[in-house]
Write a structure and sequence with these properties.
The complex is a heterodimer of chains A (194) and B (105). Helices cover 71% and strands 0% of the residues of chain A. With 194 residues, chain A is an all-alpha fold. Chain A has two domains: 113 residues, Rna Polymerase Sigma Factor, Chain: A; 79 residues, Winged helix-like DNA-binding domain superfamily/Winged helix DNA-binding domain (Arc Repressor Mutant, subunit A), CATH 1.10.10. The longest helix of chain B has 25 residues. Chain B contains five helices and no strands. Chain B has one domain. Chain B is mainly α and 105 residues long. The chains are: A mainly alpha (194), B mainly alpha (105).
Chain lengths: 194, 105
């Protein structure tokens, strides 16, 4: 059976609410979702929570998936959107933290934890990657999406453009601007040479 | 600030050869547990929402505002007296005054 047929069958089973198909789906795509989300959140516990959210969202909204794009493209979209929503929510909480006793929100820690070490980075690159991840956080959202999908998740420009629903040239431009901004951020933060 | 020992190009290339990170084992079991828990949650969520300090405060403010609005409107239109006079007139009947009962024949 071809890959496309297998995927179609999986989608049909998921739409029918088949639990075994959902288990299969989670097990084959968990690292894709977790790694993408981790690239944005840079915190293992938050990434774990959001990964769970992503799969629940997918299970609940698979009926809306029309098959216009590949299933993995759609999964990436849900993962990116959920990660960015989480970041926005966290920023809002931090901004209005003084109101949390009145608003009755959970008083969980909303501070950014410094020094994120991605477990997939080679040991001798850890320090540099740590500096890079700090700079990625300062990028505008679109540039951040393009950069994380391309550099952390290893998607091609074509795949990034499908996830972002934009043209190939737009992705190229986003990545170019992202690199320019990262260089600028790194120079300012760490007093680097070019 | 101390000068870093790396240059920007080195840092930008530090993600080359990155390996995908994996979540902790038994992710599916945790997702399943969360879904089962969330199925039980709707009533609890409503209860949690209506007992939130923000919700209670907003409700109290709304109640006070409506009362204040009605009271101020009545004062401005002079409705307070106009409404109370006919009511008083309706309930106080001249032939039911107590001195009539005790009146000596």
């Amino acid at each position: 059976m071809t890959k496309a047929l297998v995927e179609q069958e999986l989608i049909a089973r998921l739409k029918a609410g088949d639990g075994i198909a959902f288990k299969e789906f989670v097990e084959t795509r968990q690292s894709l979702v977790y790694n993408t989300v981790l690239g944005f959140l840079q915190n293992a516990e938050d990434a774990e929570d959001v990964t769970q959210d992503v799969f629940i969202k997918i299970f609940e909204s698979i009926g809306q998936f029309k098959g216009e794009s590949a299933l993995s493209t759609w999964v990436y979209r849900v993962a990116v959107t959920s990660a960015l929503e989480f970041i926005r929510r966290k920023k809002r909480k931090k901004r209005f933290g003084f109101l949390s006793p009145i608003l009755g929100e959970d008083n969980e820690l909303t501070l950014d934890l410094p020094d994120f070490n991605h477990p997939g980075v080679a040991l001798d690159n850890r320090e540099k990657a740590n500096m890079l991840f700090n700079a990625i956080k300062q990028l505008p959202e679109n540039q951040q999406i393009a950069f994380v999908l391309n550099k952390v998740e290893g998607l091609s420009y074509q795949e990034v453009s499908a996830v972002m629903k934009t043209s190939l040239s737009a992705v190229e431009s986003l990545l170019h601007r992202a690199k320019t901004n990262l260089k600028e951020n790194l120079k300012n933060f760490y007093n680097l040479d070019q | 600030m101390n000068k870093s020992k790396f240059n920007t190009e080195e840092i930008l290339n530090s993600l080359d050869g990155i390996v995908r990170a994996e979540p902790k084992p038994f992710l599916f079991t945790r997702i399943q547990a969360r879904m089962m828990q969330e199925e039980k949650l709707p009533e609890l969520a409503v209860l949690r929402f209506i007992t939130r300090p923000a919700f209670v405060l907003s409700l109290a403010l709304l109640f006070i505002s409506i009362n204040a609005y009605i009271a101020l409107n009545d004062v401005e239109n002079g409705n307070g007296e106009e409404v109370s006079q006919p009511i008083a007139a309706e309930y106080v009947q001249p032939d039911a005054l107590p001195y009539e009962i005790n009146e000596m024949p």
